[in-house]
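U., I forgot to send this yesterday:
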Amino acid sequence: MTSFANLPDDRDRELDCTALDAALGACDRAAEDALRARATEDPALMFQLAEEVAFLERCRELTVTPSARYGAMLRDVTRRAERRVPRHVPLLQRPWFVVAAAAAVTFAALAWSDPLSHRRADAPGSGMKLAIAVEGGSGDEVSGEAGTAQVHTQSSFASAVEAMRDRFEVEGSGQLREALTSALSPDRDRLGRWLDPRNTVALMRLDHEVRARSEVREQALRSQGGLAAADRRVQQFADDLARELPRRFRAVPFEPEPALAEVAWVVRALLAAGPTSAQRAEAVAAGSQWLADRLEVATVADSVAALSALIEVAAVSGQHVAAVSSQGRRLLEDVLSPADAWRRGRPDLLAAAVSPAVVGEAMRVFRQLPAFGLDAERCELIRNLLLGSLRERIDRGADGPECFAALVYGGSDLLDELERYSCERHLRRWQPVSLAPDFVTVQQLAWGMEPGRSGYTRLQWQLRPLAALPRPQSMQAQAALTVCLAASYAAPRGEFLQEVARATLGLGD
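Result:
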């Protein structure tokens, strides 16, 4: 009997050479000839080989347009290089009065600043140095009351970090310990953390302006596989909300006051639908002012909801910037500052009672707050802790779509490719329409998946039935559904909507 263990060497080479290997030229000559011989007898293999060759040809023709971030980073590197390597002029070729003036200025600066006194003030033990910078500081040495305040702030923050470590050790939370270590690592893209929020906020205003054109909205839906007719439902819901919100404000003495989260969702829905009428603009102004007036006494969940709406209002109109900055700083300090509070337990934002949707929204809020003056490193620290809290819930058995949608929605940039793919694969188990009336989770799912990701086109087809759902009864559910349906042109997608607008309206670069 012939043994199957002893196959000919040519057959081994043939099995090792795939259609992609042959297209890349990665096979030896004998294996490639054997594969081509098989392809003449196997039409399926012949088509596969042709597809691989065509695919590689298309890849060779691909070009990538540099993003706005790339240009800004390149200019930043160039400016730093120019400052560090100034144009050199030999000393002997300079006029004598320039040399004398330079010497006088140098002497005066040294006499005034007294660098030796700074060195004495910077003795060991004056403050713990961490990877997270002090908020508002530039890294330069300071003296007097400002220096004392900075040292106190550093010491307070160092105590809070140690209290966090102790708390996570007591609770046995490996996910949060890893998140804290990762956030404090010095090997981070500091320029990106500072630049990305500002680019995002700047694009929010530009996108809001072009959303006023119905042809831009419909083309954005159509180009991403969505249902262009869904925009009519979005506009209908937005007009209804623009009428309902002022009515609810006027009826407060006789009807219950609307919840803060309700008003926040209505404001976001009106902004997502586009600035198409004066009535919508008035409703946005009234709703955002109502939110700003109640931030001082809002709960953690309500503060996150209100900040999410006010950030968009501040981005598109420049209003309530101070409220966003002050409330964002208050949330940040609630997590980072009180070391004694950490010894008693976790802060409210990291407590198990907070819903995954609020955690996901908080991660997105802290991603944008550096554009309003908050320290980018500390905001990222909080985002990492929130990410660790969601991972912790999943490790403890939370298998529903809420945690996975919040991870992708608020922390996709913090996930490595393998973990992000795993989250997106888990989310494919649920049809968006089957999650109704939980439109908050559907919104995070729709906004979290980006074009080009595996399963994105499939998700757009699954979102189409949402446009046929009956009108929700509550104002918040109706607003959340509106934001879901408008995801293709309302969710931040870089310069996508601007490119659609230029192509649709025939505008130049």
